[in-house]
Amino acid sequence: MSSTGQPFHQALAAKIFHGVNLVSLLLMMTSGLQIYNANPVFGGREGLPIPGLFVLGGWLAGGRHWHFAAMWFFALNLLGYGVYILVTRRWRHRFFTGKDIKALQSSKNNKRRSYAWHRIVYTAIIPFLLLAILSGLGMYKPAQFPWIVEMFGDWQALRIVHFATVPIVLIFATLHSLLGLKVGGDRLINSMFQWR
Amino acid sequence: MLTSPFSRRRFLQLSGISGTGLLLGGCSLPIFEGAVGRAFEPLNQRVEELLFNPQKPVPEFPLSAIEPDRLIINTFRSTPIIEPTDFRLIIRGEVEQPLSLSLQEIQQMPRTSMVIRHVCVEGWAAIVQWGGVRLSELIQRATPKANVRYVYFESADDYYESWDLRSCLHPQTLLAYQKNGQPLSIENGAPLRLAAPTKLGYKQSKWVTRITLVNQLLPQRGYWEDQGYEWFAGL
User: Fold this and answer.
1) How confident is the model at residue A8 (pLDDT cuts 50, 70, 90)?
2) B150-155 and B208-214 as β-strands: parallel, antiparallel, unpaired?
3) Looking at the partner chain, which of B24, B41, B124 has a beta carbon nearest the beta carbon of A39?
C-alpha cells in the first residue's frame, strides 16, 4: 500500500459500475429529498424541509420524474454489478472477510488495519443500497408489494427506513472516500476514476 | 514518488466543484424535469400496467387498523355544496345505455366496504374504510361499447380526471358514499367520490357528478396530470 508500490489497476467494468452508481445515487438522493419536501417524513407539513440547494427537480412532480428515471440506472447498474462479481468470482476477494476482522483484532500494522477498515466500509454500503431499493419499491407500489410494507411494520416505518438510507449511505461513502485516500492515495483514486 | 497528472488536491478541487455544480443545478432544473418525465414515463407506465392485475384484490386491513387522523383533506379549489336530493350521477359517452342516477338509486345497489391504504403523492398515507358501489357495476349497467379504453370523471368543483378502463373495473374501485363507518363528509367528497387502493390520491376525484367513457384520451388528462404529474399513477 505504499505510495511507490505497483500501480493499482481496476477492471473497466468495475470503473463503469462505480461511476454509474455514484452519479445515479446522487440523482436518487437529491430527487428523493425533493419528494421528501412535499411532506417531510418527520413532522409532516410542519416538518423541516431540506434546503433547495440539495434537492433536484424544482417541485414534487419534477422530483418524481427524476427519481423514477434514475431508479432504472441505479437498480440495473447494481444488478449488473451483482452478476459481474458472481461471474468473475470477485466476490471471493473484493469484500471484507474473516481475515480483515482478524487483522483488526491482532495486527500491529496500521496500514493493514486501515485496509481492513476500508474493506468493511465499502462492503457495508452494498446492503444499504439494496435496502434503499427494497423500501423504495414498497413505497412506489404498495398495492402490488404489500408484503414489503408489512415487513417494515407500517407506512411511517417504511418512510423512515427509506429516508434513513440517505444519511447512512452518505456517511459510508464519505468514510469510503477518506479511507480510500488513506490506503491508496491518489493512485487508488485515479485507478477508479481515470478512463485509462 | 510517482508524479500523478491527477493530484489529490486536484481531485478534491474537482469533486468539490462538480459536487457543488450538481447541487446548485438541483434547485434550478425545471427545464430538464419535464424532458426526463417525458422520456421515462412511457417505460414506467408500461411496467405499471404489467404489474397491475384488474382481477386481483389488494389485501385489506382489519377495521381496528383505521387511522382516522391521518387522512389529510386536499382540495384544489373550493368545497362545492351539493343538495343530495338534486344530485344526479350521469354516465355517458361510448355506452349503449346512458344513465342518470339519483343518490337513492345508487345506494340501493349492492354496497361494497373495504379497508385500504390511501396513499398521497406527497408521501403520506392513511388506512381508511370506504363504503360504496363498485364502479364496475355502474359501468356494466351502462353497457360500454367494445372500443372503450378510458374513463373521464368530472367533479362539481371542476376537478377532472381520466383513468384507464382496466383500473376502473378493478373490484376495489368504488364510488364511495361512506367513510370510516360514517356517511361521507362534504370535505371528503360527498355525495360521491372515487376510492381505490390501486391509484394515488389525486386520481380519486371527490364530488363526482359525470362519468364519460371514451376510446381515446383527450389532450386534457386530469387536473394534476396537465401540470406534469404522472397519468397512470398506479400503486
Assistant:
1) confident
2) antiparallel
3) B124
Does residue B115 fall inside a structural domain? Answer: yes
Distance CA B7, CA B152 (A): 61
Kindly state whether residues A112 and A66 are assigned to the same domain: no
The number of C-beta contacts closer than 8 angstroms across A and B is 132
Provide the terminal-to-terminal Cα distance of chain A, rounded to the nearest Å.
21
CB contact under 8 A, B37 and A146: no
What ipTM, to 2 d.p.? Answer: 0.88
CA-nearest of A38, A60, A71, A32 to B228 is A60
CB A91 within 8 A of CB A73: no
Task: Return the C-alpha cell found at A145.
Answer: 408489494
Sheet holding B208-214, edge to edge: B99-102, B88-93, B208-214, B150-155, B160-164
Pick from A8, A56, A135, A187 the residue to mutate for testing the B interface (most B CBs within 10 Å).
A56
Query: Whole domain around residue A127: which residue ranges?
Result: 95-196
Q: Considering the domain boundaries, does residue B2 fall inside one?
A: no
pLDDT given for residue A101 in this prediction: 87
> How confident is the model over B132-159, as pLDDT tens digits?
999 999 999 999 999 999 999 999 999 9
Distance between B7 CA and the closest CA of chain A, angstroms: 6
Strand B125-134 with B150-155, pairing: unpaired
| B117–chain A Cβ distance below 8 A for any pair | yes
pLDDT on residue A9: 84
Distances (CA, A) of B62 to A37, A50, B57, B113: 31, 36, 15, 12
The answer to whether position A158 is within a domain reads yes
Q: Are residues A79 and A104 in the same domain?
A: no
